[in-house]
């Protein structure tokens, strides 16, 4: 007889990585999944995906990560894969100011094809190649923060796939922001549920469970929160000011 808890099921989330050709999307994915870096990558044609398991704040996730082709000529090949996404990483390169300008187009393209609510979707802005010397930098951190604020995007992080800096952190940030958005959606549903219009017939609505860990998102997970205590402080803090602060490292690969 044992009182051990049954192993927790993994929640499957779809993550899509977007950004101009050459900003380092494939390098980011390869570093995160395989901890490898290749200097001479071929351009991605269409899309490629890889899975990665990760435990964040005690919760198990399988991330299905879609690396998309940044070149315009592959647009028609990549856009069908946006639908069903749970998290979107918008990438630019620190030595390429045009790639930052491109983020508006990438976000719009994603919103067009993914059919999500732009204010309730976890976008993470990722500035890659922060290993480069200061004289090569064309994109200032504060300028990106300003752009994020205008777009109501709460999360921005600088990474280096080459030097393995902040790569896992970028995905963890995405997960935490996803969790935060789920909690907000759950709170809204709860609020709606608390208001009963007595003049209308009562219909039973199946609600998404969020903070307790089940259902929700496009991931279709059904597991329960391991602690059984709903969300935690790390997740609750994910929403507002995540710009300058490095995410806490409570994760396990
Ligand atoms: N210095 C530096 N160079 C990087 C880094 N990540 C990628 N690169 C370089 O940028 C090149 C392009 O990286 P990719 O990962 O292929 O870029 P991509 O965004 O996937 O490009 P597309 O497939 O065309 O969309 C690589 O061959 C590397 O030389 C990084 O963190 N630092």
UniProtKB/TrEMBL annotation:
<dbReference type="InterPro" id="IPR001806">
    <property type="entry name" value="Small_GTPase"/>
</dbReference>
<keyword id="KW-0968">Cytoplasmic vesicle</keyword>
<keyword id="KW-0449">Lipoprotein</keyword>
<keyword id="KW-0653">Protein transport</keyword>
<dbReference type="GO" id="GO:0003925">
    <property type="term" value="F:G protein activity"/>
</dbReference>
<keyword id="KW-0547">Nucleotide-binding</keyword>
<dbReference type="GO" id="GO:0015031">
    <property type="term" value="P:protein transport"/>
</dbReference>
<keyword id="KW-0597">Phosphoprotein</keyword>
<dbReference type="InterPro" id="IPR027417">
    <property type="entry name" value="P-loop_NTPase"/>
</dbReference>
<dbReference type="GO" id="GO:0005764">
    <property type="term" value="C:lysosome"/>
</dbReference>
<comment type="similarity">
    <text>Belongs to the small GTPase superfamily. Rab family.</text>
</comment>
<keyword id="KW-0472">Membrane</keyword>
<dbReference type="GO" id="GO:0030670">
    <property type="term" value="C:phagocytic vesicle membrane"/>
</dbReference>
<keyword id="KW-1003">Cell membrane</keyword>
<dbReference type="Pfam" id="PF00071">
    <property type="entry name" value="Ras"/>
</dbReference>
<dbReference type="GO" id="GO:0005829">
    <property type="term" value="C:cytosol"/>
</dbReference>
<keyword id="KW-0636">Prenylation</keyword>
<dbReference type="GO" id="GO:0005886">
    <property type="term" value="C:plasma membrane"/>
</dbReference>
<dbReference type="GO" id="GO:0005525">
    <property type="term" value="F:GTP binding"/>
</dbReference>
<feature type="region of interest" description="Disordered">
    <location>
        <begin position="215"/>
        <end position="234"/>
    </location>
</feature>
<keyword id="KW-0813">Transport</keyword>
<protein>
    <recommendedName>
        <fullName>small monomeric GTPase</fullName>
        <ecNumber>3.6.5.2</ecNumber>
    </recommendedName>
</protein>
<dbReference type="GO" id="GO:0005770">
    <property type="term" value="C:late endosome"/>
</dbReference>
<dbReference type="GO" id="GO:0042147">
    <property type="term" value="P:retrograde transport, endosome to Golgi"/>
</dbReference>
<keyword id="KW-0342">GTP-binding</keyword>
<keyword id="KW-0378">Hydrolase</keyword>
<dbReference type="InterPro" id="IPR005225">
    <property type="entry name" value="Small_GTP-bd"/>
</dbReference>
């Amino acid at each position: 007889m044992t009182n051990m808890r049954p192993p927790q099921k993994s929640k499957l989330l779809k993550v899509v990585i977007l950004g101009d050709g050459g900003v380092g999307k494939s390098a980011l994915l390869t570093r995160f999944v395989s901890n490898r870096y290749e200097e001479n990558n071929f351009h991605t044609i269409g899309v490629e995906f890889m899975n990665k398991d990760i435990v964040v704040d005690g919760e198990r996730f399988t991330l299905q990560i879609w690396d998309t082709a940044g070149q315009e000529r592959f647009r028609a090949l990549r856009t069908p894969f946006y639908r069903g996404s749970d998290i979107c990483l918008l990438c630019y390169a620190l030595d390429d100011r045009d790639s930052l300008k491109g983020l508006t187009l990438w976000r719009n393209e994603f919103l067009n094809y993914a059919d999500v609510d732009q204010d309730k979707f976890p976008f993470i802005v990722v500035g890659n190649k922060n290993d480069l010397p200061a004289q090569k930098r064309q994109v200032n951190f504060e300028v990106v923060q300003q752009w994020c604020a205008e777009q109501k995007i709460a999360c921005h992080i600088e990474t280096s796939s080459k030097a393995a800096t902040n790569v896992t952190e970028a995905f963890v940030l995405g997960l935490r922001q996803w969790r935060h958005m789920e909690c907000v959606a759950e709170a809204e549903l709860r609020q709606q549920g608390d208001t009963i219009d007595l003049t209308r017939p009562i219909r039973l609505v199946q609600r998404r469970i969020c903070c307790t860990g089940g259902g929700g998102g496009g991931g279709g997970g059904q597991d329960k929160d391991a602690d059984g205590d709903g969300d935690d402080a790390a997740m609750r803090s994910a929403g507002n000011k995540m710009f300058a602060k490095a995410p806490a490292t409570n994760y396990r690969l």
